[in-house]
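PROTOCOL LOG
Step 1. Enter all chains and additional molecules of the complex.
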Amino acid sequence: MNLAYLLHRLGTLLLVLVGVSLVTFAIVPLLPGSPVRVTLGVQATPESVAALERQMGLDRPLAVQYVDWIGGIVLRGDFGDSLISRQPIAGEVRRRVPATLTLAVAALLVGLAIALPMGFLSALAPGSRRDLGVSVLSQIGVSVPDFWMGILLILLFAETLGWLPSSGYRPLAEGFGPWARHLVLPAVTVGIISGSIMTRFVRSALLEVLGQDYVRTARAKGVPRPIVLRKHVLRNAAIPIVTIVGLQMATLLSAVVVVEIIFAWPGLGQLALTATLQRDYPALQAAVLLSAVAFTVINLLTDLSYALLDPRVAYA
Amino acid sequence: MTRILTLALTLLLALTGLAAAQTRGGTLVAAWAQEPVGLDPRITSAMSSYQVLENVLDTLIILDADQNLVPSLAESWTVADDGLTVTFDLRDGVKFSNGKDLTAADVVTVFERILDPETGSGNAWRLAAVDAVTAPDAGTVVFALNAPSPSLLGHLASIKALGIFDPAGIADGSVNARPVGTGPFMIADYQPGTRVLLERNPYYWEEGLPYLDAVDIRIIGDETVRRTALVTGDIDWAFAVPPQSVEELSARDDVVVDAAAAGAYHYLGVNTREGPLADPRVRQAIAFAINRDNVAAAGEFGNAAVTQEPIPATSSWSFGYGPYGYDPDRARELLAEAGYVDGFEIEIIPTTFIEATIRAAQVIQADLAAVGIRTEIRTLEWAEWLEEQGTGNYDTYVCSWNGLVDPDDYYYAQHRTGEVFNFTGYSNASVDELLDQARVIADPAERRPLYEEINRAIVDDAPYVYLYNPLQPHAYAPDVEGFQARADQALRFVRTWLDR
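Step 2. Run joint prediction.
Step 3. Record the structure below.
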């Protein structure tokens, strides 16, 4: 991998972000309703609406608003203040990033803990009853809506069994125990769904490699099965699996929205939803921009990891 | 004799125990269903924000649990004989939670800010009668009015957005997110969407209060999760128990459900500007066609009292006027009279923000279909709903008015021609005249017949088809003491304590 390639990718990333910022800025105010009306509720008089529009700067031309906003981000790293809570958005985001990352990573780990063994089990005996069982389970996992699964888990583990707290988030700084106890249910909720999706990819990636000539040759010349699996199958199936894991990680960052709401988890998804409902334009734009950054960066990292996994892959 | 003595002793012991248990300290973990829409008292108009400010800001006067005006920051007040001046004598020695003394000048600044059109306050209309607020000395505040305004005192007492904050917060911007007040608690942490932490105000002026060290408000939007958090003890207190859970929670011995008839009503707002709905007979037909019992059963699972007028039967201002029994035949007759034998088609817009409105709209849809009015339900989220309702882009909508006190609050702004919240376009010259007369009369006995007439005319003209007055249920752990559900829906934790 060379530096030019990396610079090229980073340049593309920048272009994508400029594009995303322009599109969100243009689209978001098209949503019917406004932060002014949300603030004033049913008590909106024409005078108070006009005064708040001036205060929030919404009476300026869109182009001026954009330059002001993007300038603040580029020059000062300032995402502006929320139009509703009047708190700096950068601080809001900083507070929420750890919560969302924690949940996404934990969910991915749960997902992998499901997908790898299940994928293996079914790929090694395609068409068997075991394979069918895994297919059915993963089908169920994919089909069950996350909010429903979350509520069922809460009712079972928080109310009926009383083992875990029903909702909320504790930072790691407040101790490992509370942190972990609050994390389990949301992570499992997202993890089951993500794991079910990944199970199918792991299965098909393995099946494809297992059908290759070099695997048959290795077996034919008497290499023991475990060694074939480890040295030939796994290594070659790694690229598609890493791809799906990377994609899942990127998707998880936004897929956790519903689960964040259910579990009162103070993450970015919750911020994005609240900002949308309250028409808090700068907060929503920050959330969209951030998830675009996360998505592109994770994709970049995934691409770069190919070179580590497969010496034949080179970036120029 | 011995028995009586034993009984007396037991009673005495119980009382002493109660007094001893009533100790200070502890944190009440409360859950709100909706997060505050900002905490700036100058502009916010959201119930969820008021409920936080309720514990942070004091108003000049306040309503007690029976809805009587009683002193708060003002120890006493006098209304001049001509009704054009209201003088408040401020309590001595009151400090803000930052330790600064409260002065009459602070009070003046706060009201000047709210009255300044540039502030864009959602509550400036409540002070429409106020010409000027002045402070002749450090302990006196004088409101000069352009017309007598009996409803003004009710507004000053019931609306936390008219509470007094430290005006220094305007210059440094802190009033935007963390207003400093004189109330029992102060905002120690505000994480939008997640948490508001209220801590005991060490300078609070009422001796020995509040009992709690802190109120930790968490935002738990999902109804099922909020309920579970309560029964598992993750939270102590829940704001807005879903109406469908009231019965189940009331039956449990580990939860107390406390409900009060709220000074609020749910209604169907009808756009009177054009089309079939401009004809009062059509609106009356709708009022006859709706089975309010079913609407209340669906909307609030029965935790409501059906009504045909706005003011709840529990209020002394209730008139008990109800011309519309559930009568589909009468509805069809009226529609035929108006020339709509074959009915017509309209839209109902409920909002996801108040889930009861969606359930109510479904019942109304079926009831109206039975008399030939075809409806389409267009459910909108709050921001869009407000836009459509505010700009008159609807046929009918379902919503509620909350926290109303004076009869003027129930009729004037909603129904006077061209008034700010007259979203239905309703206009009736004789109602306008009566409203103008009634709002400047101080004597309740003299006002009552006027409002009775106003109420009758509005109910008959039916720009609003009144549905029900809801009960406001709260649920909390059995060891939470000293909380009282109130008709004005105010959540006050100043006398709440934990028996643990």
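Step 4. Note key features.
DSSP finds twelve helices and no strands in chain A.
The CA atoms of residues 91 and 115 of chain A lie 36 Å apart.
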